[in-house]
Amino acid sequence: SFLGLLLLTSFLLHIKEGQARPMGPVCDKRLIQKYIGEAKDMEKRVSQCQALPTLNCPVILPLVDFNMQQWKSKSDEIKRREILCNLVLLVGAVTEAQGQVSQECGAKQLGQLYQHANTFLLFLQTFGWEEGPWEPDCSPRSIEQTQVTEIFFTYRQLVGGKLRFFFHNLAKGSCN
Prior knowledge:
By secondary structure, the protein is mainly alpha-helical. Helix content is about 65%, strand content about 10%. It is built from seven helices and two strands. The longest helix has 27 residues. One of its GO terms (biological process) is cell population proliferation. GO terms for molecular function: cytokine activity; hormone activity.
């Protein structure tokens, strides 16, 4: 997709020389704010879709709320793995929902959400982490949902919460 390619390119352009870590979304505070804004917009747009169906097969969504004190005490690698687990579950839920929502407005929003969530997934999976390839061996706390809007709510919570604080924390150690 064009959007995915664009985001990937912007990540790649921000990689500092001599460092295998892309700093775009981490060092540029406006980028994470932009992603949070987009998450809110998508959530708003999907809530305005007419006759959005209830899902026949519930999707499994990660519970992405967190305790700030506990979160701060975790290493970056543990945080990254936790967010990856959440994203894997979320992308799975979006894919599952896409198979059940033929209604145009909902399907379009789900397609957009899939691209956004998948871009974060690829970013956290592939870029310059010393720990080697990531294996999805996780079972985060989760909940079954039948409302499409809950998927968007979970994504907004994840981007505005764990991801934002994760990037903020990385920036402290990596940006000039």
